[in-house]
Amino acid sequence: MPKRALSEHRPYLLASLIAAVSYYFVANDPIGGIWLMGWKAAGVGFLALYAAHRGKGFDAWLIAAVMAFGAMGDALLEVSFLIGGGLFAIGHLIAIWLYLRHRRAATAGSQKSAGLALLIFTPILAALLTYPLPNWELAAGYSFLVGAMAAAAWTSNFPRYRVGAGAVLFVVSDLLIFGREAGRIPNEVAEWLIWPLYYGGQFLIATGVVQTLRHPELRAGKA
């Protein structure tokens, strides 16, 4: 069975890594177009396939849907921030549902405080970064969903230093995007950090959730 799992499922992770790492080096291609949008979407798209094929039960389909909406958002951000952001928002709502289905039986005070901080300060930081640009309210509202997703992940019973940490990396990558668009963060710095943080976060989330669904002993409190 281990050999079968390796041959049938891990290629999705390998394909995801190859697509994501290679995209990092072609992201600024001036030609761009559909081919670059597809390349960008492939990294997280393969994570969706990994979750669908490797996961177990209804929750595996939920995390696969989260990754699928993320992949579509990756592609369509190149066309419209509003459309791409809307797709990500749907994915965040599904992720929140998933994490709330797997709440910890007991949450320490420090864990509750961290979750509350993610929920409150993520939209505040987004607003401070984007005000007074047009649509700064949309950025803050979207970031509330991102913060809620990260808070739910951090306080879920999925491994905190995989799924929770991955969600925090997602928060940081989004805040860097807003800072770049507002001119508050140098473009060179943002371009260097955003994609690795975003993809690394998605990779940790997808693999952390899937492996925990397959091996419940990895749930928080034991890992």
Description:
The chain has 223 residues and is mostly helical. It has one domain. The protein is 78% helix and 0% strand. It contains 9 helices and no strands. It has helices at 2-8, 10-26, 34-54, 58-76, 81-100, 109-130, 136-154, 160-181, 187-214. Helix 3 (34-54) runs parallel beside helix 9 (187-214), helix 6 runs antiparallel to helix 7 and helix 6 runs parallel beside helix 8 (160-181). The two termini are 24 Å apart. The model has no long low-confidence stretch (mean pLDDT 91).
In short:
This protein has 223 residues and is mostly helical. It is built from nine helices and no strands.
Radius of gyration: 17 Å
Report the strand count.
0
Structural class: mainly alpha
Order of helices and strands: HHHHHHHHH
* Sheet with the most strands, sense and barrel status: none
Average pLDDT works out at 91
Supply the number of helical segments: 9
Strand content: under 5%
- How far apart, in Å, are the first and last alpha carbons? 24 Å
Shape: globular
Q: Write down the domain tally.
A: 1
Residue runs with pLDDT of under 50 for 5 or more positions: none
Helix content: over 70%
Keywords: Membrane, Transmembrane, Transmembrane helix
Family: Belongs to the TMEM86 family.
InterPro entries: TMEM86B-like
Membrane topology: Multi-pass membrane protein
